Amino acid sequence: MHFMYQWLRRKDRERMAKTAPVVIAEYVCGGGWPEPTAAPGSLLAEGIAMWRSLVRDAAACGIRVITTWDARLGTPPALPPTVRIEPFAGPFGSHEDWASHVERLARGTADRVFVIAPETDGILEKVARRLQQRAARPAWGRTTPMRDAASGGSGRWIGPSPDAIALATDKLRTARWLQRHGLPTPPTWLLSDVLERRVDRRTDGATRWIVKRRDGAGAQPNWLIECTAGELADELRRTPAATRSDPRRWIVQPFVAGVPMSVGLVGITARDPGRHGSTGRLQRLGPWSVLIPMRQRIRDEGGSLTFAGCRTALAVPPPVQSRWARCVERFAQHWPGQPAGYLGLDFVVDADGEVWVVDINPRLCTSYLCLRELYGPQLARAVLFGTEVAPLRGGDEAAEAVAYVVGEAAARKGAAARGC
Questions:
Q1: For residue 284, what is the domain's CATH number?
Q2: Confidence (pTM)
Q3: Which domain holds residue 150?
Q4: Chain centre distance of CA 147
Q5: 182 in a domain, yes or no?
Q6: Distances (CA, A) of 301 to 80, 305, 308
Q7: Which tens digits make up the pLDDT trace of 173-182?
């Protein structure tokens, strides 16, 4: 049996080696960062860790990769020989120039393009639209469409469609979409509406609130405020969001205290729309592979919440499993467009065991650094080519402890992860 498994893996690598290369472009370390100098330490370390892990995993599956690297960072890390690195030396300051670089790499040779970029300022959406529109223009008398995989074609863009990215980018639209489709989520308002004291009376008992950027990635930046609903407008007027920015670019929500968690979904081509797996957790839900949930580590830094890492969510109580599984199922039923690439769903489990969906991430998330340790390189193949993710041996309950701490180069496993 082991020999047969190894033979199938070798044949799969040989088949992948014959396909056209895949372009993998990461925004922070790949040249998209617009400031005069490279991105700050922890953000850069996180970007490099995600990029290097995905590229190495793809190469381990026999996939040929073309990738970008910010020339300001000097010599890139050593990568397998099947990976071709194309440094980006500027001009910096606009995502348009970086997107042009990615487009040039894809033109004529690449089979598909996978971009890791933040939603902030519409960056991911704009890059997705640009790559699709430019690739659809005739080149040398021919038309080479770069349709998104979510459109149902075999095109080059891997991930949600630009319209779906736009929905997930706008946190106010996201909240309304979740409410409309029956997913539990906190009440959400524009900061400008709250300043004019238009607050839902159902929140009169709330005493903690969170202010987030409407298009922030990972809810950054944000502020926590402690006050009653009647005092909220006056307290908000003192925040930087109200004093230094357009209040229509920020949202306000009652803060949901509890355990922050996330679950990753990988788009596949479904034949059987039912559930699969014998562990009681979702492993496949229609055209999605549903991965083991992760517990997020959130740090309070003087009234501002910061993502500090994640680890496998072990020993989740069965009632909570059932609730988040129902949320994922409802989400999968209503998400616009065909599944493609990777999506992250963030939720909070409160003290009563209720599940609240708080964000949708239309891109590869940091939790990939932990998930790859559990699922192996096949996870990269699934993300890039839409194959089904094979379940963990022994089921999700057999998963070992894996943790990632922001700023580190890789995830920790086993005993080293339990203290994170």
A1: 3.30.470.20
A2: 0.87
A3: 2-158
A4: 21
A5: no
A6: 39, 6, 11
A7: 999 999 999 9
